[in-house]
Amino acid sequence: MADTVRFLTERVDNRTLTHVITGNPIMVMAAIENPIYDQAMRAAELVVPDGTGVVWAASRVGQPVAERVAGYDLMHELLRVGETRGWRVFLLGTSQEVIEETAKRLKQQYPRITIAGYRNGFFGPDQDDEVIAQVRAAQPDLLFVARSVETQEPWLSQHKFALDVPIMMGVGGSFDVIAGVVKRAPVVFQRLRLEWFYRLMKQPTRYKRMLALPKFAVKVMRDKENVTKHRPTT
Fold first, then answer.
1. CA geometry: angle at 206 spanning 204 and 209, to 5°?
2. At the top level of its lineage, which domain of life is listed (predicted)?
3. Please, which residues have CB within 8 angstroms of residue 152's CB and are 6 or more apart in sequence?
4. Residues near 77 by Cβ (< 8 Å), separated by ≥ 6?
5. What's the pLDDT tens digit per position in 92-108?
6. Percentage of the residues of the chain whose pLDDT score is greater than 70
7. CB-based burial of residue 144 (10 Å sphere; 0-12 exposed, 13-18 middle, 19+ buried)?
8. What distance in Å separates the CA atoms of residue 79 and residue 105, rounded to the nearest whole number?
9. What pLDDT score was predicted for residue 220?
10. Measuring CA to CA, how many Å separate 91 from each of 25, 101, 144?
11. Residue 111 burial (C-beta neighbours within 10 Å; 0-12, 13-18, 19+)
12. Distances (CA, A) of 54 to 20, 60, 181, 198, 203
């Protein structure tokens, strides 16, 4: 985490465009099955191991990582640094009610951060230019995006050069947690690496998405050393 925050701080200081993906098994499986998602992940300037499954897989294939870098925690670490450096933040995604509450709470928690703008995530391709213009006009240092798994990273990858923000990062359901709509898993679940199980208990409708987890585990164990070899999706 410390190395990641230091690296991204330097990227902001140098105004270097960076798409950060907080990778988890669901994203990896999506990339295997979807060429557009695969391309988005491979084009990202930084992919960090968000999911516990990714940390396990990295160790399994002989390329261990130091620790899990959870997207929710990384976002807050960047906001803490941003407070000391006067960074500007743009929030994009989820519903209008949630995004407004998220902006309000983040401003209370990080009073020296500038919330340069926010917008809900309910827009289609015909509104992309409008959204991009709104983000660019705000001149943020950090852009956090909370949209659906299928949309979030491909959208950022497609438009990152037009957006021209030093740090762009998909944050999934983080805004819902910040706004108090959804509770984050208790610390005991986090320590046991069972946050996914807690979310499934609280939101049983996620079960279809969670089916990717056993598929991921089987693939890692079955493919072994071939896991790290790139085989283009079709």
1. 145
2. Bacteria
3. 93, 145, 146, 170, 172
4. 1, 5
5. 999 999 999 999 999 99
6. 82
7. buried
8. 13
9. 79
10. 25, 11, 5
11. exposed
12. 16, 10, 27, 18, 22
